[in-house]
Design a protein that fits this description.
four-stranded mixed beta sheet; alpha+beta; two-stranded antiparallel ribbon
C-alpha cells in the first residue's frame, strides 16, 4: 500500500487569501480525506478532477513556507458513511420532529411574549452564547465582509422571515403556518431563475412550482370553499412575504462572503437578526407592552424549547446530516415539518384541520417534493455555503 502526500500551502502563496492555509491531498484514491482541525480547509484532489488552477504548468505555488508530509493510508477514512446508522436516524428524527414542533411552541410562547420579542430573544440569546464559543474554538476572526453578509442574511432570514412567522401565528394556526413556510423551496427556484446570471428551472421543477402555488391559492383563496373558511388574509400575506424573504436571504447567502465555519456564520446571523428584532420591538412599543409578572411558566418553557432545541439541537443535527448523507435526503424535512405541525396543532391546540387544509397540504407538499427530487439538493444549499434551512 502506498502513502499519500499532504502539501500545506499558505493561502496568499496560492492566491487564495480567503484561507490561511490550503491542504493539498495527492496520490490518494477518490473518496478519501484527511482529518483536519478547523478553520483550515482540506483541498481534495484526484487525477480525475484535474489540477487546481494554481497548480497548472507554469504556476509558481511552492515556497519555503510550504511543506510536505507523508501519511500512511490507515490514517485516511471514507468521508461518507462514517457516522453510525443510529446517529443518522436520531438526527433525522431531530430535524423532522423538533423543527416541525417549533411552530406549536411559538404559539405557546405568544401567550405571554409579543411576537418580535419572542423571536428576538430566541436569536439574540442563541447568538450571544454560540458566537464567543465558536470564535474561540475555530480561531476565525470574521472580516467586515463577513459581518456585512451576516447582517443582511440575518435581517432577511430572522428579522423578516422568522419575525413574520411569529407575528402571523397570532391569527394563523401553527399547522397552516408551517404549510405556508414550506413554499420557501418554491420561492428559491424563482429567485435563482430571475436573478442576474440565474438558471432556468427544468420542466419537473417548473411543474412543482406551479403545483405548489396552486395549493397556496387553494389555501387562501375564495371564502367557504369546500365548506371551510380561508386563512386570515393579513396573516397569510405576512407569511408569504416572510417565506419570500427567507428564500431571498438563502440565495444571497450562497453568493456572499462567509466564514469557513458554517456554525460561526449562523451565530453571526443570529446576533444580527436578534438585534434587529429587539430594536424593532422597542420601536413598535412591544417592550412597554410586555408584563414580566404575567409571563406564564409554559411560555418560558416554550421560549427555552425553541432556543435549545429549535436553534441548538435541530441545527446541529441538520449540519451533521449534510455531512453524513445526501442533501436531497436532508431536504425531506421541508415536507415532513408541516405534517408534524398540523398534527401537533390539531392534537394539543385544538386547531381545526379541514378538508380544504388537507387538499392544499397535499398539493403544496407534492410541489415541494417535485422541486427537491428534481434538483437533487436542498434548495439554496451548495458546498461551503452557510446552510439556511427554512425552519421556524
Amino acid at each position: 500500500m502506498t502513502s499519500g502526500a499532504v502539501i500545506v500551502i499558505h493561502g496568499k502563496q496560492a492566491k487564495c487569501p480567503k484561507f490561511k492555509y490550503l491542504v493539498l491531498v495527492l496520490g490518494l484514491p477518490a473518496g478519501t480525506f484527511v482529518p483536519s482541525s478547523p478553520p483550515h480547509p482540506i483541498w481534495r484532489w484526484t487525477p480525475a478532477r484535474g489540477l487546481p488552477n494554481f497548480m497548472k504548468p507554469g504556476k509558481q505555488f511552492m515556497s519555503t513556507t510550504a511543506f510536505t508530509k507523508t501519511i500512511p493510508p490507515a490514517k485516511f477514512a471514507p468521508e461518507h458513511g462514517s457516522g453510525s446508522s443510529a446517529g443518522v436516524l436520531l438526527a433525522f428524527a431531530a430535524i423532522y420532529l423538533i423543527w416541525g414542533s417549533t411552530y406549536f411552541f411559538i404559539r405557546i410562547g405568544l401567550e405571554s411574549f409579543p411576537p418580535l420579542i419572542l423571536a428576538g430573544l430566541r436569536h439574540l440569546l442563541t447568538g450571544a452564547v454560540l458566537f464567543p464559543i465558536l470564535r474561540w474554538k475555530t480561531g476565525i476572526r470574521p472580516t467586515a465582509d463577513h459581518w456585512k453578509s451576516a447582517a443582511i442574511t440575518g435581517c432577511l432570514l430572522l428579522f423578516v422571515g422568522n419575525g413574520g412567522v411569529c407575528w402571523a401565528e397570532q391569527t394563523v394556526p401553527s399547522g397552516i403556518t408551517a404549510l405556508l413556510v414550506a413554499t420557501v423551496s418554491l420561492w428559491m427556484v424563482l429567485i435563482e431563475w430571475l436573478r442576474p446570471g440565474g438558471t432556468r428551472p427544468r420542466m419537473q421543477v417548473g411543474a412543482g412550482v406551479l403545483l405548489g402555488f396552486a395549493g397556496l391559492v387553494l389555501l387562501i383563496g375564495p371564502a367557504h370553499l369546500a365548506g371551510a373558511e380561508r386563512v386570515p388574509l393579513a396573516g397569510a400575506g405576512v407569511l408569504i412575504f416572510a417565506s419570500f424573504s427567507w428564500a431571498l436571504g438563502s440565495v444571497y447567502s450562497k453568493h456572499s462572503a462567509h466564514p469557513v465555519s458554517p456554525l460561526l456564520g449562523v451565530a453571526m446571523q443570529s446576533l444580527s437578526g436578534g438585534v434587529a428584532l429587539c430594536l424593532s420591538a422597542l420601536f413598535l412599543g412591544e417592550w412597554r407592552a410586555l408584563h414580566v409578572a404575567a409571563i406564564t411558566p409554559r411560555s418560558l418553557v416554550a421560549l427555552g424549547y425553541i432556543i435549545v432545541f429549535g436553534s441548538g439541537i435541530g441545527f446541529t443535527a441538520y449540519l451533521y446530516l449534510l455531512k453524513k448523507t445526501s442533501a436531497a435526503r436532508v431536504g425531506t424535512y421541508a415536507f415532513v415539518n408541516p405534517l408534524v405541525a398540523l398534527f401537533l396543532g390539531w392534537s394539543f391546540a385544538a386547531e381545526v384541520v379541514t378538508l380544504r387544509t388537507w387538499l392544499a397540504a397535499g398539493i403544496i407538499l407534492t410541489g415541494v417534493i417535485l422541486v427537491i427530487s428534481a434538483t437533487g439538493k436542498v434548495p439554496g444549499h451548495q458546498d461551503d455555503a452557510i446552510p439556511t434551512p427554512g425552519e421556524a
